[in-house]
Amino acid sequence: MEPEPPVVPDPVSFVSPTVQQHSTTELGPPAVPDLISFTSVIESFEEDDDSNIKFTCTKFVLLDKDTHSVWAGSLEIPRTRVKIQQAMKCLHLVPEDQIYPAVSPDMSLTAASDYTPEEDSWLKRPDIALYSQFDDSTVLAEEFLEEIRVHQLIQKNPHPNLVEFRGCLEKNGRVVGVLLKRYAMTLSARVEGSKQTPFDRTSCFEGIQAGVKHLHSLGLAHNDINPENVMLDDQDRPVIIDMASCKQFGEDLYQLGTPGWNDGYEEISSRVNDEIGLQKILKWLLVRRGEMP
C-alpha cells in the first residue's frame, strides 16, 4: 500500500495584527552588569592581501527579554579591552523585520501582552546570537519563518518522538517566538548526569530513529542530530527538538550542524546528515555504557 502524503497546514480564519515599528517607549537597551550578560560578544577577523588574518572589530548583540527588542553594535577594540560602558554606548536598536517574521493567516497566535509562561511550556526565540553574522539583512527572520513552517507541518502530522508545537508568540504583527512543550532533560544530562535509575539505551535510540524516519517521510531532514537536541520526557521517551536546521531535502543549510557531530555533513539538507548524526548518537550511547572503547 502506498503511504498517504503528509497533510499540509490549511489556512484558518485570521485577522492580521498591524505590523508596527518599535514603541517609542523603548528608549534604550536593558541595563546589564558585564559583557557576559550580552546575548553574543564575538571578535571579527578578515584576511588581508598577504593572507594574514587581522582583527577587525568586536560585535555585540543584546536581547531585551521583556520587550523582545534586539540591540547590536560593534567596536574596533579587542574583546579583552572593551569596557561595559563602551559596549552599551555602541548599541543601536535592530529593526524588527531583520529578526522576526511577519505573522500570517495560518498561524496560531498568542499576543505577547497576554502571555504568561507555563511550567510545561518553553519559549524558543530566533537564534539571535547569530545576528552578528547576518547584520543588516533579514536572514534570521527568514530562517525563523522556515522553522515555524516545519513546526506547523509536524503539528499536522505529529509523532511521539518529535517536539510538540503549541503556536506562536506575537508582538506588533511579528512572531517573536514559538511555544513548545517543555521536557524533563536532555539526553546528555540523562546519560552523563548523576541520576542512577535504569535507562534503556536501545529503546531510546530506536525512538530517535523513529522520529528521524517520520521527518524523512515528510520530506524533511533534521540536519543537527546530537545529544543536546534530544530531550527525554518523564517516561524516558526521546523527543527530537530544535528544528532550526530542519529543512526540505535539497535546501541549502546556513549552519552545518553542531561541531563534533557534523563530520562529513553535506551543505544541503539530506538523509546523509541525519544518518551521520544517528551513527554518532549510537556510538556515543555505547561508549557511555562501556560497550565500546
What is the element layout, followed by pairings?
Elements: E1 40-47, E2 53-63, E3 70-75, H1 84-89, E4 92-93, E5 109-111, E6 121-124, H2 139-156, E7 165-171, E8 174-181, E9 185-186, H3 187-192, H4 201-217, E10 220-221, E11 230-232, E12 238-240, E13 247-248, H5 271-289
Parallel strand pairs: 5-7
Antiparallel strand pairs: 1-2, 2-3, 3-4, 6-8, 7-8, 9-11, 10-13, 11-12
Summary tags:
four-stranded antiparallel β-sheet; alpha+beta; 293 residues; IRE1/2-like
Descriptive notes:
This is Protein kinase domain-containing protein. Residues 60-293 form the Protein kinase domain. The protein has a 4-stranded antiparallel β-sheet. Strands 5-7-8-6 form a 4-stranded mixed β-sheet, covered by helices on one side. The protein is built from 5 helices and 13 strands. Residues 8-15 and 21-25 have low confidence and may be disordered. Strand 2 (53-63) and strand 3 form a beta hairpin. The N and C termini lie far apart (44 Å). The relative contact order is 0.12. It has 293 residues and is α+β, with helices and mostly antiparallel strands. It is globular, with a radius of gyration of 21 Å.
Describe, in short, the structure shown:
The chain has helices at residues 84-89, 139-156, 187-192, 201-217, 271-289; strands at residues 40-47, 53-63, 70-75, 92-93, 109-111, 121-124, 165-171, 174-181, 185-186, 220-221, 230-232, 238-240, 247-248. It has 293 residues and is an alpha+beta fold. The strands form four sheets. A four-stranded antiparallel sheet has the order 1-2-3-4. It has a four-stranded mixed sheet with strand order 5-7-8-6, covered by helices on one side.
